């Protein structure tokens, strides 16, 4: 974990004493030594992410443990147009994929439910399907043949990558066949001049990033689930993650994809060129479609050079207004080296502390914390920029306290206070999770308004009989992306009624998005209308109808 | 124009004397003073672009002056399904838009051909249509009503922005109605915290950038035609330009659009959020569709902060291999501040010199030149990085000679040697222009192979009887984007036969793109198959059929 720095007393003193010439000098001298010390190791490690596994954790979001999705959502009925799996169907797939045991999990002919379970549930065990057959093709051709067969025989399918999603998008609802990407895990090509990586969709994000690290490059996406999530799933959900602020969205970095449509057509759009203006950019439709149009089988992506220097600072702040000020200062002063600006409220940090028992980065508690990361090519320059920034926010009294990672271990530790929130929340009971985007000035107000509403309804408290333990907020401030989390002790229908549609209406009134980066999946199926007009939803249905007229691709989800 | 720097003799000496300790020291000392001098003004000016107007220049690309496109391409026939304009049609539009003279140019009822001419021709006067009616709506609602009427009455239309395209995409072929965006020119909103700009599609790029400059921001796209081209056209053609290397493509920076479909439907996807994962990202289809799906009426785009410091260096190099080495070094050492890496061959620079008569930036001539631009937030840091880079390429003998802009005038002047090529070529006769993307190691080989082929055919020479004056290459090396230009003295059928399909086949064999950033328009209509498979073309036609089933949107073009 991060050690305390000498900076803290100075920071605190400055915050109190204002911006006299003396205090400015102290700040400069203090910040100088710290910025240099912190950056001098030129650390190249960028995440404290832990592998997100299928854990036997308490179920979430107001649902009895391992309840079937079909039970929880009785209004969703199995589509009778879909065939039920027969031994004949399975025989076709077995014949196609071979019978070596690794390519197929066959519940129709007796595979144990335990073998199927990981594919039927999401990692939070909020959603559970009735799938009886998992297929693991290892070539595009196999995907093509399988999909064509399923389309002809009206067999519904769910593509499944690392299964780390948060909205139930990658698990079956009824008896859909799971198409696992796990055997499509080869890195195919890397161009060391252009930084273009070509890989199969089942490559785990962290594996791709480690491969790139060995070449001096970095994957332009990073997120907490990197140890399990896969590139294809990242694209299918248009994952945003921690460094979108710096490297932009996948719509900009992905150069090409290969995908298979339900009728078996292979969309061969695996361009490796940074510029290619030859007609409609169809690959963009698959980025963020959540597997409802086809299966992404290969990816070509532009990767930036791995920064030589990295710094991470962690601040305590007295108000959300100060967080906004700090962000504006960081944008202005750190500019091209700013790679992350994360926000955490005290509630979220208290939960992490409670679960992990780790010593907190700062001695006192504050209503808000910000984690700032810089990534650049020159250690000294980055340290100087950070030092100037530190001075500035200290002198202005914007931050109340702060610490700076001195080595890679501390850097990981500081990141763990941000990245560990999801995991910590998961340990404490059910969680209502909202991943939203709201214009920055109003962003945190949603947490306060929600907390007040839950409290007014008498549902929030410290007693074991209070259904809601805490209403917390954190997220990617650099992208106006808030994660509102309502941590509950146990399922209580009243909580959901207080939260929904309140949260969605609140967001819609401010032209926000009800899903900034997690997608819609099953969880937000009902709520798309809060962020998209009927015209836009109609246009989406047109596209769905065009590519998947029989509706076999990931049915029952948002479209 | 740029002044000569003291660096040059030192550079030349170093290039000859190798990398002794002495020469390294000289290089450091010399580069130091120059890098500091060049960067000390912290210039904020980013382009020497000149307004691209409809000029009375010599016609291009093997075509008699002002020849009708329908004459030049006799194989393209007017689609008889389209109605011919009648006074009744015009009366409807006049009633809708008002009769104040600014909203309508009516050749049906007698407007002079001269008034229609600028809308019937592209700026190079390579393409010329027979349009008799120009409409200039000023609201989305007017666009919607016009398109609905046109769709119902089978009237074909061409959306037209700044009309600065290079492939004939924005001018009519037959009697299509021109929908001019010129009255959709309002900047609607700007958020100074997030940097999100919302503007109508007819705003001129330079106007948007100047507005942003006053707010401390920069438009994430810049190109030679910025004085005339419009945001809507930039999006419709997915313009790449000079700083894609730094700010990425419009697929990543555009947050939302409003567009009108042929049936009058308003695609209201004008999100201002950096993250919004609520279904298919349909706006992406309109980016790069060249007006064949609908008319983009409004744009929302993420703008980066305007860099405080900028440097431009101009080098002479002895070979294309050295250019590649310089690029790799620049990527590694200048990293996050590298904002442009442009390549020009001697042929292109000789033409600019001949047309402008300006003193050349370097004393001697070299086979290749590179223009390197850095943009960052800290003048001193950027200068130091550039200085280190200079030392490195000097010590290694990668560059043979160089100069560095010392002030804004010099910076503009150096850029003019890159940005002025198109203009200069235009003054000398017809030009066959190819805007292509090829993997970097092979990129310039296309110019050499083309030159050899033209020479072998006896078409290249200095005599007035030789049809081809020069085969030159230049472009955005940072994006593997080459502009191959074949400058001719006069139309000669043999030239085209020697060039096509040779050039396209050459590119296809290397998995390149036949249009990196200019689009396909009419010019590359026939050649899409060299960069896209029949499956991809088929999928594009599906999309075209979905949005524009009657085919009224920009017909006769690539789809």
UniProtKB/TrEMBL annotation, chains A, B:
Its cofactor is FAD. One of its GO terms (cellular component) is mitochondrion. Residues 40-69 are annotated as: Disordered. It is found in: Mitochondrion. It catalyses: (R)-malate + A = oxaloacetate + AH2; (R)-lactate + 2 Fe(III)-[cytochrome c] = 2 Fe(II)-[cytochrome c] + pyruvate + 2 H(+). It holds the Pfam family FAD_binding_4. Gene3D superfamilies: 3.30.465.10, 3.30.70.2190, 3.30.70.2740, Uridine Diphospho-n-acetylenolpyruvylglucosamine Reductase, domain 2 (3.30.43.10), Vanillyl-alcohol Oxidase, Chain A, domain 4 (1.10.45.10). Keywords: FAD, Flavoprotein, Metal-binding, Mitochondrion, Oxidoreductase, Transit peptide, Zinc. Residues 127-306 form the FAD-binding PCMH-type domain. Its EC number is 1.1.99.39. Residues 43-60 have a biased composition (Low complexity). Transmembrane segments: none annotated. One of its GO terms (molecular function) is FAD binding. GO terms for biological process: malate metabolic process. InterPro entries: FAD-bd_oxidored_4_C (IPR004113), FAD-bd_PCMH (IPR016166), FAD-bd_PCMH-like_sf (IPR036318), FAD-bd_PCMH_sub1 (IPR016167), FAD-bd_PCMH_sub2 (IPR016169), FAD-linked_Oxase-like_C (IPR016164), FAD-oxidored/transferase_4 (IPR051264), Oxid_FAD_bind_N (IPR006094). Catalyzes the oxidation of D-2-hydroxyglutarate (D-2-HG) to alpha-ketoglutarate. Also catalyzes the oxidation of other D-2-hydroxyacids, such as D-malate (D-MAL) and D-lactate (D-LAC). Exhibits high activities towards D-2-HG and D-MAL but a very weak activity towards D-LAC. Belongs to the FAD-binding oxidoreductase/transferase type 4 family. This is D-2-hydroxyglutarate dehydrogenase, mitochondrial. It comes from Echria macrotheca.
């Amino acid at each position: 974990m991060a050690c305390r720095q000498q900076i803290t007393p100075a920071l605190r003193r400055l915050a109190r004493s204002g911006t006299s010439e003396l205090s400015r000098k102290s700040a400069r001298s203090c910040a100088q030594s710290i910025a240099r010390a912190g950056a001098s190791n030129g650390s190249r490690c960028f995440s404290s992410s832990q592998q997100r596994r299928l854990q036997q954790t308490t179920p979430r979001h107001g649902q009895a443990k391992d309840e079937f999705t079909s039970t929880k959502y009785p209004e969703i009925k199995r589509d009778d147009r879909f065939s039920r799996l027969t031994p004949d169907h399975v025989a076709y797939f077995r014949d196609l994929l071979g019978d070596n045991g690794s390519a197929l999990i066959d519940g129709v002919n007796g595979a144990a439910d335990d073998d199927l379970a990981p594919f039927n549930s999401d990692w939070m065990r909020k959603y559970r399907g009735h799938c009886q057959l998992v297929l693991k093709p290892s070539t595009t051709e196999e995907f093509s043949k399988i999909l064509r067969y399923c389309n002809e025989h009206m067999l519904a399918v769910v593509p499944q990558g690392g299964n780390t999603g948060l909205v139930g998008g990658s698990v079956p609802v009824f008896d859909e066949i799971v198409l696992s990407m796990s055997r499509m895990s080869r890195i195919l090509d890397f161009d060391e001049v252009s930084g273009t990586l070509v890989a199969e969709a089942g490559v785990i994000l962290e594996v791709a990033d480690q491969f790139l690290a060995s070449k001096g490059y970095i994957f332009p996406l990073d997120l907490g689930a990197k140890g399990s999530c896969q590139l294809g799933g990242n694209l299918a959900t248009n994952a945003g993650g921690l460094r979108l602020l710096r490297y932009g969205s996948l719509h900009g970095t992905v150069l090409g994809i290969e995908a298979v449509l339900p009728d078996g057509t292979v969309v061969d759009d695996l361009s490796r060129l940074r510029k290619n203006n030859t007609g409609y950019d169809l690959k963009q439709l698959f980025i963020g479609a959540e597997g409802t149009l086809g299966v992404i089988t290969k990816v070509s992506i532009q990767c930036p050079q791995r920064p030589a220097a990295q710094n991470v600072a962690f601040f305590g702040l007295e108000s959300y207004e100060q967080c906004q000020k700090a962000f504006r200062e960081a944008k202005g002063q750190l500019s091209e080296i700013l790679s992350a600006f994360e926000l955490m409220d005290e509630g979220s940090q208290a939960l992490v502390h409670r679960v992990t028992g780790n010593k907190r980065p700062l001695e006192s508690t504050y209503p808000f914390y910000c984690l700032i990361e810089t990534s650049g090519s020159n250690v000294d320059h980055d340290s100087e920029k950070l030092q100037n920034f530190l001075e500035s926010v200290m002198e202005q009294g914007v931050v109340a306290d702060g610490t700076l990672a001195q080595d890679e271990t501390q850097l990981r530790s500081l990141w763990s206070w941000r990245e560990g929130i999801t995991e910590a929340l998961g340990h404490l009971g059910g969680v209502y999770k909202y991943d939203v985007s709201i214009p920055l000035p109003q962003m945190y107000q949603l947490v306060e308004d929600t907390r007040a509403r839950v409290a007014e309804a008498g549902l929030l408290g410290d007693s074991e009989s209070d259904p809601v333990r805490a209403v917390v907020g954190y997220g990617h401030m650099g992208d106006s992306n808030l994660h509102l989390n309502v941590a509950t002790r146990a399922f209580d229908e009243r909580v959901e009624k207080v939260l929904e549609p309140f949260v969605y209406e609140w967001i819609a009134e401010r032209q926000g998005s009800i899903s900034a980066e997690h997608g819609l999946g099953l969880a937000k199926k009902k709520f798309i209308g809060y962020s998209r007009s009927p015209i836009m939803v109609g246009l989406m249905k047109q596209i769905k109808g065009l590519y998947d007229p029989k509706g076999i691709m990931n049915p029952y989800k948002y479209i």
